[in-house]
Design brief:
The structure is a single chain. This protein starts with 9 loop residues before the first strand and ends with a helix. Helices cover about 30% and strands about 20% of the residues. Helix 4 runs parallel beside helix 5. It has 12 helices and 16 strands. The radius of gyration is 22 Å and the shape is globular. It folds into 2 domains: about 160 residues, Roll (Ubiquitin-like (UB roll)); about 290 residues, L-amino peptidase D-ALA esterase/amidase (4-Layer Sandwich). The strands form 3 sheets. Strands 1, 2, 12, 13, 14, 15 and 16 form a 7-stranded mixed sheet that branches. Strands 5-11-10-9-8 form a 5-stranded mixed sheet, with helices on both faces. The chain is of the alpha+beta class and about 475 residues long.
Length: about 475
Amino acid sequence: MMVSTSSILLSLVVLVTAHCYPSTAFVVSPGRSSTASSSAAFTTKYTQQFASTSVETDTPEILPEFSSAEAYLEYLETVSQLPKGFATGTADGTFISVEAPGLGNLKIRGTIIQLTDGPTESWAACFTSNKFPGAPIKVGRKRLASGGPLQALVINNKVSNVCSGGDGEADAELVCQAVADALKLESASLVLPSSTGVIGWRLPAKELAQDVVPKAVLNMQSESVLNAAKAIMTTDRYPKVRSKTLSNGARIVGIAKGAGMIEPNMATMLSYILTDATIPKAKLQAMLSSAVDQTYNCLSIDGDESTSDTVVSVASNQIEGDVTDEFEEALLQVCTLLGRHIVNSPLFKCAVSGNDPNTGRLAAAIGSYMGKYMPDADVSQLSLSLGDRCIFSNGKFVLEGDEVEKALSGHMKDAEYGDSTDYPPHQKCVEIGVDFGTSVGETSVVVLGSDLTKEYVVINADYRS
């Protein structure tokens, strides 16, 4: 979430939304401003806010445009260098669901992230506040509360291990023990589990422990985090990696997955942020909590909060030097680039998907919000803009003429990804400015979300199979 003094940019960014094609940006300002910020102005402010060291192996604030999925993945490989002291390994397996055996053999993927030079005390985590947390969340909370060290993470997709008929925590611990055995760690308590996928199914712990984990360990490598970014995906259209290099050479590399069930009260999706900087545990937890609150807590796709939301940051302490302030800024940047927040109007988000500038739906969504949370605000001071065009001012719409309709629709279409795109061809977004006027004070915020597409419905209609 990026804050300026004049406007709020709420953006539906495809960075963390797999099946939501165009990016949409909303600019909402309690203080009076003219129109929505342009992409160029947004980029300039973004660059000014995050001015720490950049090298060729860092992801820029705005990614380049890509002509194919291959080009995107080739680029991502160049910015996916693992920090010192980390290795990752992935492997596939199969299982038959106890709850739905008729579906036959289903694929499941496991990912292991290891600290190669021994356990670290410097790790932090934020978990979902959903009242039905998954078993891995319960295990993770216990690990965090104990204050013990960490040496590995294990993540599986396909089954979230939430409210299953079996002993979910025991299943998670069985997988952790398998990782500890395969990596020759002293204890399973050094392993943090995460699961994502179907809710209500029992975790195929034996298949993971006996097949997937050993294969993943054989595939361990210390070059790139991209394999892990790919492996943790579920309904995501493409992997997400963001990285930053500090002035002393230390790196921060983050990966994330998530395309649905995204509107958290804390944390979001699954995200893992690795660094070789030397950061004390207490400071790392404070900085991660702050960064999560400003970024991942500002993201919404469909209004559903997941039961498995997890954000973990781990420091291998391989590179010495006090870079705490610089690290905090870079951590915020990586989290900012991995996720954000937006208002939840399914009607308007469907309109965005169809490049339909249905301004009435936008006004209805904002009016609903103001009625609930700003009942005393002066609506006559409200102004709305779409792209660089004012569409509502002084209590009425400003939409006369076919040229206005054409321009608004064109602005939406320019941010479109396309029906079959499995990579982010550009970083453009639909920008919507909301200025509440001077009656509600001076403040601003950046929020991100996405549209809702036909493919989103299709994928989630058949999610389990």
